[in-house]
Amino acid sequence: MLRFRNALITAAAASLAIAAPAFAHPKLVSATPAAGATVSGPTQISLTFSETLMPQMSGLDLAMTGMPGMAHHAPMNVTGFKTSVSGDGKTLVAALPRALPAGTYDANWHVVSTDTHRVEGHLTFTVK
Asked: For residues 67 and 74, is the Cβ–Cβ distance under 8 A?
C-alpha cells in the first residue's frame, strides 16, 4: 500500500511538472549596435531576446547623450522612428528614418513576454 501511494505521488508530481508552462523572463541575447560599440551611422537598432515578445507591450526610447564639440548639453530624445517585433517574435527592431549623426546614444528598452512581466534595460553606443 505504501509503495502504491508513493508511486501515485510521484506520478502526480511528474504530471504537474510536465503540464506547467515554462515561463521565463526575457533576457537580452544580442544587440546591434552592441553595448559600448562604436559604429558608423546606423539606420536600425535590433535587440534580440531569449523569449517571444508581446509587441504591443514592448518598445524602445532613444536619446543622444553626447555630441561632438558639445561637452555639456542635455540629452536629446530621438523621435520619428517606429518599433516592431520580428517574425520570430524575439527581436525588437527600431527602424530609424535616417542614419544617426555622430554622438553617444542611450537606448532604454522595455519588453514583455508571455509571462507578462515587464523587463527593462539600457545600453549605450557611440556613432562616429
From this structure: no
